[in-house]
Amino acid sequence: MVPAGRVVTYGQVARAVGVPTAARQVGFVLHGLAPEAEVPWQRVINASGGISTFKIGLGELQSALLEHEGIVFTGDRVDLRRYRWQPPTDLAS
Predict the structure, then answer these.
(1) What is this structure's pTM?
(2) Does the domain spanning 8-88 belong to CATH 1.20.140.20?
(3) Which residue from 11, 34, 67, 83 has the highest number of Cβ atoms inside 10 Å of its Cβ?
(4) pLDDT per residue over 36-62, tens digit each?
């Protein structure tokens, strides 16, 4: 549901699925996606606005995909105040 040009954090996804302490597991699930999966994995970043996928060799790809969607990096960070997506309140309940 995260629209192009917006991001969420691993922790946001974990909270959305009802397991608020499972941010790391969200990363494992995203890493395990099949290449043909139509999940916008690139829109999930860490809580400080950084890209965590450099550790697994996908950082450059993730950054490029986000930049293609219009997200601007300041150094190696995304401004979460500007780009973080919050679901409508009726979806969060």
Answers:
(1) 0.89
(2) no
(3) 83
(4) 899 999 999 999 999 998 878 788 999
